[in-house]
Amino acid sequence: PPRSTLFPYTTLFRSYFFGDSISTLLTRSLNWRSAFLDFFRLGGTHWYRPLTNGFMQFLLWPLFGMNFAAYHLLAMFLHWCVCLGLYLSLRIYLEDTFAAWVGAAFYAFHPIQFYSTYDVCFYQEPLGGGLILGAVAFLYWYVQRGQKRFLAAGIVLLLVALGAREVAVFTPALLLILIWPPSNLRRAATAVGVSGVIGGMFTGVYLVVMHPLRYQPEGYSSDWSPKHLAANFWTCVRWAFGIAVGPQTEGWKSPAIVQGCLWLLLIASVLGSIWFWRRPVIWKGPAFFCVAAMAALSTHRLWPHHLYLPLMGVALWIGSVIASWRQSGTGDRKSVV
Questions:
Q1: Which of 73, 100, 173, 327 has its Cβ near the most Cβ atoms within 10 Å?
Q2: How far apart (Å, rounded) are the C-alpha atoms in residues 188 and 180?
Q3: Cβ neighbour number for residue 300 with a 10 Å cutoff
């Protein structure tokens, strides 16, 4: 699977759509009027993802039809755009090109990307993740620079992201993690406050008015018990470092020596965080991961592609450890932010 992320043709002619993918194509928006109305109602599968589970299929069906390869290549393109955006964001945030490259490469070639880039059913991951990344980046830039055009761009991307993936409601929390402590309290309060109001209003309408879970099988219900959250969290942590566990990862189990190296990477990240704990950026990657994964932790149907957005936090975590180590070697004790 990691190889197929880099070389898409290794799976193109031996693969076909998932059942959910065919369902997504069948329940696409059928005309421009329904595409518009879908932004104000649940889709055919009783979820609210009008941009990625309706509108995109409406636009692509006349072009691609049932051509699996075309959908897969487009998913690959979207993913690589996200990877480029993540690299640029990490380079600016960490002020270390090499650390940013390592973090972005880890994200780009991670085994879960096999699922996230498979076909039309998973456009919600690169589109949603990319839009959220863009919203957070512009809002962050507004807090740092104070130009209102960045605030406007961040708000627009957040609104669009809410139509791609529900986890966009965590945007204000992710922004707060990255800007803390804020360089400008007024601008920070504006960015977090405005995005928080938008996210809160969407959450209220989504859970109370739309209430999609009433139409879903029992397995989709949330379970916030500590035992369930802890079990899912431990699974997500191992998946986040490429360690295969459970039937969901049967397709990308690695040889024992590779598994050992992945465990060493996990341990090194934890030890690096402890060693450089005084640097503010060190805890931000793990915090980003935990917040972004919050919705996935409560589900009874946990799948690797649910970590598409949270994995950005792990990329930041690994990059921050490397940046801190490189700066400590040069005697530079300034904050890596």
A1: 100
A2: 9
A3: 13
**Assessment of whether the complete model's pTM goes beyond 0.85:** yes
Contacts made by residues 193-201, CB under 8 angstroms, sequence distance 24+: 194/151, 194/155, 195/135, 195/139, 195/154, 195/155, 195/158, 195/171, 196/172, 198/155, 198/158, 198/159, 198/162, 199/158, 199/162, 199/168, 199/169, 199/170, 199/171, 199/172, 200/169
Residue 329 confidence (pLDDT) above 70: no
In order of 15, 141, 308, the CA distances from 89 in angstroms are 34, 10, 16
13-42: per-residue pLDDT in tens?
Answer: 456 666 577 777 777 778 888 888 888 877
- The rounded distance, in Å, linking the Cα atoms of 317 and 281 is 8
24-43: b (≥16 Cβ within 10 Å) or e: bbebbbeeeeebeebeeebb
3-state helix, strand, coil in the chain (%, to 5): 75, 0, 25
Residue 177 near residue 288 (C-beta atoms within 8 A): yes
Separation of alpha carbons 20 and 300, rounded Å: 18
Computed over every residue of the chain, the mean pLDDT equals: 85
Peptide bond into 8 cis (omega under 30): no
